[in-house]
C-alpha cells in the first residue's frame, strides 16, 4: 500500500472523493473558506482569493469549508468538484464566474445556456466547466471542471 501513497496524495495534492485533483493553497479570501466558491491566484505565493466580479481568470474551486483566512485549504483545479451556484443550475449547461449583470456574489458560479456563434470571448475566459446535475436555487452542484 505504501507504494501508492504519493500517487493518491500527500501534503501538497490529492484526489478528492468526487473525482477532482486538489492542491493545497493558502486561504486569502478575507473570510473562512466557503466550499464551492471560485478562486483565482492571490498576489502572494501559493495563495488564493475569491474571483472578483467581471474577472476572466478563474483557476480553481474551494474544496473545504470553514478554514480561517491565512489557513491551508484544498483547491480543486481539475476533474469534478461541488461548485457553489448563485441560482438555478441545469445539467449540461455552461458554468462561469459572474459578471455585474448576474446579481450574485463574487466567487459564486452561474449556469447558463451554451453560447452560440459568434461565441462571446469574454464569457469563454470566465468558463469553469459544465454542471453534471441540476438544482433549484443557490447551492452546490457537481461540475466537471475546465478552465480556459
Question: How is this structure best described in words?
Answer:
By secondary structure, the chain is mostly beta strands. The chain folds into two domains: 2-78, Beta Barrel (Virus Head Decoration Protein, Chain: A); 83-145, no CATH class. 7% of the residues lie in helices and 38% in strands. It has two helices and ten strands. The protein has helices at 5-8, 121-126; strands at residues 13-15, 20-27, 38-41, 47-50, 60-62, 72-85, 94-97, 109-112, 127-131, 139-145. It has a five-stranded mixed beta barrel. The longest helix has 6 residues, at 121-126. The protein starts with a helix and ends with a strand. The relative contact order is 0.21. Mean pLDDT is 89; it is low at 1-6.
Quickly list its features:
Virus Head Decoration Protein, Chain: A; five-stranded mixed β-barrel; mainly beta; 148 residues; 2 domains; disordered N terminus; 38% strand; 2 helices; single chain
Amino acid at each position: 500500500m505504501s507504494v501508492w501513497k504519493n500517487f493518491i496524495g500527500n501534503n501538497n495534492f490529492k484526489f478528492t472523493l468526487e473525482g477532482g485533483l486538489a492542491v493545497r493553497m493558502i486561504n486569502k479570501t478575507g473570510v473562512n473558506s466557503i466550499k464551492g466558491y471560485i478562486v483565482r491566484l492571490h498576489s502572494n505565493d501559493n495563495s488564493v482569493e475569491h474571483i472578483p466580479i467581471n474577472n476572466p481568470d478563474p483557476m480553481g474551486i474551494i474544496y473545504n469549508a470553514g478554514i480561517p483566512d491565512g489557513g491551508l485549504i484544498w483547491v480543486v483545479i481539475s476533474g469534478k468538484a461541488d461548485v457553489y451556484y448563485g441560482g438555478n443550475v441545469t445539467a449540461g449547461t455552461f458554468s462561469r464566474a459572474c459578471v455585474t449583470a448576474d446579481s450574485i456574489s463574487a466567487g459564486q458560479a452561474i449556469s447558463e445556456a451554451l453560447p452560440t456563434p459568434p461565441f462571446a470571448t469574454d464569457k469563454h475566459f470566465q468558463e469553469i466547466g459544465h454542471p453534471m446535475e441540476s438544482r433549484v436555487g443557490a447551492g452546490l452542484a457537481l461540475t466537471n471542471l475546465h478552465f480556459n
